[in-house]
Specification:
The protein is α+β, with helices and mostly antiparallel strands. Helix content is 45%, strand content 16%. Strands 1, 5, 6, 10, 12, 13 and 14 form a seven-stranded mixed beta sheet that branches. A seven-stranded mixed beta sheet has the order 19-20-18-17-16-22-23. A four-stranded antiparallel beta sheet has the order 2-3-15-11, with no helix packed on it.
Length: 1031
């Protein structure tokens, strides 16, 4: 068998084959009969491979043992067509086949797996089970026979060929190792420190030891793994940033992320490995469950202080072994509360889109490749293609499927709390072990303790979106207020959008100001078919969804909101409201304001309590809400006043936190968040401190002591640099030589923070810019752009780019060439061309405009040419004389506009240069979208330049990165920032590209992301502008 190496990922000296969700389609996928028949059940795979890393093909054979179950007609002929990459069973149409090797790859087909591999002896090979016998050949090759696995689904098969070095610890009979590049063995402190403890807790939780499922626990850090996940049975693969730390300098958020990651991976041995899903429509029943269980276990593991001496054995390809002793000491990480603001609130934002999908789907609705990929990327536990870690406060939860774990978190309380939930999960595992499950069976098992619960669970699993509960005073007496509840689906509005209105059975928890109890006892389930009235003391406030742990929003009428606002503003009373409910109210009211159901005036009135709020969680919710608005107002005064408003409130909670921080893990998160936002909003002390730290670091005078702050220091220093080119190249050189994955991630993010024009002094920047424009513009237009950039640099930086020799070879029509043509060419022959040239350049007219030019257009031409003269840097007198104006004021206006144009061009050139440099370098695929998003993270000019870049380089990007997941990630990131009409139209044209013909979901989701922003800007933005321009 000879196969092309589609799923084999070559990364330096690493060869990784894993089939996890890499589904190859055959043909006729619109035909629903492509599914494998249930008459053939695979039992065993014997895979024999020969792998040569320096070749793009591998060879081998596979023998599949299976049972044939006869139904009405016997199966006469079964064969595998290797050349056409599909499996044929009698006359059934071609179906899905594993790209790595032919197999029955539907998740319900579980079979034993045996591997024999031959490969160069200097390499190490890993797979899902422990190595058996090895033998060497005379030609420098080695053959390894692996032990046969338990029955597993084929998408869990992993094969890793590498020169990685192993770090191992002792754990009774289990083979536990961590594989990294040779320079990564010093960065396994967290996983080696927590692995055994996590596994012990999982064994105790489920009461079925891991060793009963798997014989090994191998974890590998892959240098470039765009999906971020793969191999969830025996061999677990990660991105380097998801598993490697930084030794003693490890930021606390990195420690947290790694522990949650490990716990989630290991939990899949039970849920996903032993229990398989019936079909991709139900994949959440294992993936989300494993992730939620991983979160529960990690919360326990990180709560207690650990101080264990760990004896590590480091072994490499040289055969030498050495020992190291480390200790792990941590404090309470409070993951349980972080879950509310990082997961549940994120879910509430994501699933407010009109295009939101239900958690579970019917099998018949998930049949095509696009349908399956959508379930695996959007609705399963792993958000594989949307949120790489680019922010120090974005943690492991950003890689989870927020909807799946949020619903399970809610189910936890609905089923009686942690201990009852644990009993149910244990019973579910015992019942379904080594078999397949689906949503029906999973919810049946969860609801077994009480028959009335099952329809409630199904209601949440199969209904898209989530509800908003509206609370309004129905009537009042001297002693009692009566409030009435109503519900509807919460959706961000967009033009011409329709969505199905559904009813939810909503678990209600509540308290009132005279009886503030924040326990999580569910009082009742709100059925939309019944009246829902609450009676309580007159004048009191009432609060629903205690601790914000359930998946719905709450809106109150203005009277009830103002009662809550009054309480929040009182320093003595505010602390009585649970900190998570303070965060919930901020998150709810600002998101409801995006729909017009509550005014922004009321939202900002509620936010005034933040000036005296010192806790992390309410501020995390508030800054997330503010970040949606910043950069979208298109009113300089309002934008500046909003920034000042946020910065002034931040100063009250912490004037300026300094290192070392005092407090626990959440306090560190708060201090880092304050510093990042203070620097982002140009707090003078914050900027100066970052500049000093960066300069000392650059000059070798001191190291960056706290790596929690590294990203902010790099970003702030680069944004305010006096020599951007030098500082940019300094960080770029560190990136290319660094062995620290988290340092590389921080640098990539920071490189997009640049907004200083001095970078334009680099001749190659300009050459790249004009070379790109030469593909789309005529020489006359290029000359106008050249003049604008040239005059800009002369005025502001005293740099004469006319002395850059390379630019003279670019396709630009110089001013001297134009002057020579106008003065020397014969008027009799070239008069019309001269007129067209003058009007085309001075008036910025295109060909079709020149053809249709009339006398009435001359005034427009005069104004356009005045603009270009200003852009060329001429004085006001020249502009007045050219345009025939007597007023200096009019001419001065053109000069002011010219400065704005120059700044815009300077920033666009800068962004293009940055993107071209990084995209064309040997950058990891997993980082492509990070690079792209970094340039428009908070800058409207950066966004516009990124739009131009993607539009002009779309074909190149497609050829460089044909994977739909990379392309869709870039498109989604762009769409989330777009709100202007012209940009929205541009996006719709972009996603109409034929490459997305088979990916309708990418098109609809991208358009929806921009459409809700566009609708908001047209309908609700002016409220904020009025607030911040009339104060």
């Amino acid at each position: 068998m000879s196969r092309h190496m589609d799923p084999i990922k070559a990364v330096s000296h690493v060869l990784l084959i894993w089939g996890c969700f890499h589904i190859s389609t055959a043909q006729n996928l619109n035909d629903s009969t492509y599914r494998l028949p249930k008459t053939v059940i695979p039992n065993m795979y014997h895979l024999i491979l020969t792998i040569l890393p320096d070749q793009d093909n591998f060879t081998g054979s596979v023998r599949i043992e299976f049972d044939v179950i006869h139904e009405k007609s016997p199966i006469n002929d079964i064969y595998i067509n290797l050349d056409e990459k599909y499996i044929l069973i009698e006359s059934v149409l071609p179906i899905y086949a594993r790209r790595a090797f032919p197999c029955f790859d539907e998740p319900s087909f579980k079979a034993n797996f045996s591997l024999e591999a031959t490969y160069p002896s200097e390499y190490t090979i890993l797979s899902n089970n422990v190595e058996g016998r090895e033998s060497n050949t005379t030609d420098g090759m080695k053959t390894t026979q692996f032990e046969t696995t338990e029955k597993i689904s084929m998408y869990l098969v992993s094969i890793l060929l590498s020169k990685f070095q192993a770090t191992s610890t002792l754990r009774r009979d289990l083979h536990f190792k961590v594989y990294t590049k040779n320079d990564g063995t010093n960065f396994t402190r967290v996983i080696t420190g927590y692995h055994n403890k996590i596994l012990d807790q999982l064994d105790d939780y489920i009461e079925v030891p891991f060793l009963n499922l798997e014989e090994q626990s191998y974890h590998a850090a892959i240098p470039d793994s765009h999906s971020g996940s793969g191999g969830d049975f025996g061999l677990f693969t990660y991105r380097e940033t998801d598993i490697l730390d930084e030794g003693e300098d490890t930021p606390s958020i990195v420690t947290q992320n790694i522990v949650v990651n490990i716990a989630t991976k290991l939990a899949r041995g039970w849920y996903g490995g032993s229990i398989s899903t019936a079909w991709w429509s139900d994949v959440w029943t294992n993936d989300a469950l494993a992730a939620y269980l991983g979160y529960l276990i990690a919360d326990e593991a990180l709560q207690t202080c650990v101080s264990d001496n760990l004896h590590l054995i480091l072994s490499g390809g040289d055969g030498r072994k050495r020992q190291a002793v480390i200790s792990v000491v941590n404090t309470d990480f409070d993951i349980y509360n972080q879950f509310v603001v990082d997961v549940i609130q994120k879910t509430l934002r994501d699933d407010a889109m009109p295009t939101a999908l239900p958690l579970s789907s019917n099998e018949e609705d998930i049949m095509l490749e696009d349908d399956i990929l959508n379930k695996l990327t959007e609705d399963s536990v792993q958000k594989r293609y949307t949120l790489p870690a680019v922010d120090i406060n974005i943690n492991i939860f950003d890689k989870l499927n927020f909807l799946g774990v949020s619903v399970l978190h809610m189910f936890n309380f609905m089923l009686g709390g942690k201990e009852e939930f644990r009993k149910i999960l244990k019973a579910h595992f015992r019942k379904r072990r080594d078999f397949v499950s689906n949503t029906y069976r999973f919810l049946k098992d969860l609801g077994s303790i009480k028959s009335t619960l099952r329809p409630i669970l199904e209601n949440w699993a199969y209904t898209p979106g989530y509800p908003i509960v509206s609370v309004a005073i129905e009537k009042s007496t001297n002693t009692t207020d009566v409030v009435e509840l109503s519900q509807k689906r919460f959706v961000y509005p967009m033009e011409n959008a329709t969505h199905e209105e559904n009813g939810w059975l909503i678990p209600l928890t509540s308290c009132i100001s005279t009886n503030q109890k924040y326990d999580m006892l569910i009082e009742e389930y709100y059925d939309p078919e019944n009246d829902n009235l609450f009676f309580y003391g007159n004048g009191s406030w009432i609060l629903f969804n205690l601790q914000g742990r359930f998946l719905y929003r709450v809106n109150y009428d203005e009277t009830l909101w103002r009662r809550l606002i009054s309480y929040l503003k009182d320093d003595d009373l505010r602390a009585g409201i649970h900190v998570l409910n303070r965060a919930q109210m901020v998150d709810d009211i600002f998101n409801i304001a995006r729909t017009g159901d509550v005014s922004y005036g009321l939202a900002f009135e509620l936010a005034e309590f933040l000036i005296n709020e010192t806790e992390y969680y309410p501020w995390k919710s508030a800054l997330t809400a503010f970040s949606y608005v910043l950069g979208k107002l298109e009113n300089d005064d309002a934008e500046a006043n909003l920034r000042s408003y946020i910065l002034n409130m931040l100063r009250f909670i912490e004037e300026f936190p300094t290192y070392p921080f005092n407090g626990n893990h959440v306090d560190v998160l708060k201090y880092v968040m304050i510093l990042e936002w203070s620097c982002k909003l140009d707090h003078a002390d914050c900027v100066l401190d970052a500049q000093i730290k960066f300069t000392n670091y650059k000059d070798g005078l001191e190291r960056i002591e706290d790596h929690n702050l590294r990203r902010n220091i790099f970003c702030t220093a680069l944004r305010h640099s006096d020599d951007v080119l030098e500082d940019w190249e300094f960080l770029w050189n560190i990136y290319t030589t660094s062995t620290l994955p988290h340092e590389q991630s921080d640098i990539l993010y920071a490189l997009g923070c640049t907004d200083n024009k001095n970078l334009l002094e680099c001749e190659n920047v300009l050459l790249a810019y004009f070379s790109e424009n030469a593909k789309n513009y005529k020489s006359s237009t290029l000359w106008a752009q050249y003049s604008m950039v040239k005059s800009c640099l002369i005025i502001y930086d005293n740099i004469d780019i006319s002395k850059f020799p390379k630019l003279f070879f670019a396709k630009i029509l110089t001013k001297s060439e134009i002057d020579r043509f106008l003065s020397s060419a014969d008027d009799k022959e070239f008069l019309m061309i001269k007129v067209g040239l003058i009007l085309g350049i001075a008036g910025a007219c295109r060909t079709d405009e020149l053809v249709n030019l009339t006398v009435d257009d001359i005034e427009d031409c005069r104004r356009s040419s005045a603009t270009l003269l200003a852009d060329a840097g001429v004085d006001i007198t020249t502009i007045k004389r050219h345009a025939g104006w007597k007023s200096t004021t009019v001419a001065e206006g053109y000069v002011e506009n010219s400065i704005e144009n120059k700044t815009k061009i300077a920033n666009q050139v800068l962004v293009w240069w940055y993107l071209l440099k990084l995209i064309n370098s040997d950058i990891k695929k997993q980082d492509v979208a990070v690079i792209f998003k970094s340039v428009f993270n908070s800058d409207s000019l950066g966004l516009q330049a990124a739009i131009d870049f993607l539009g002009n380089r779309f074909e190149d990007i497609i050829s460089l990165y044909p994977e739909i997941n990379i392309l869709s990630e870039m498109i989604y990131a762009m769409a989330e920032k777009i709100f202007k009409d012209e940009d929205f139209e541009w996006l719709k044209n972009l996603v109409a590209h034929e490459i997305l013909d088979n990916h309708a979901r990418v098109r609809s989701k991208a358009i929806a992301l921009a459409a809700v922003n566009n609708f908001w800007a047209k309908n609700y933005r002016n409220e904020i502008i009025d607030i911040f321009t009339t104060t």
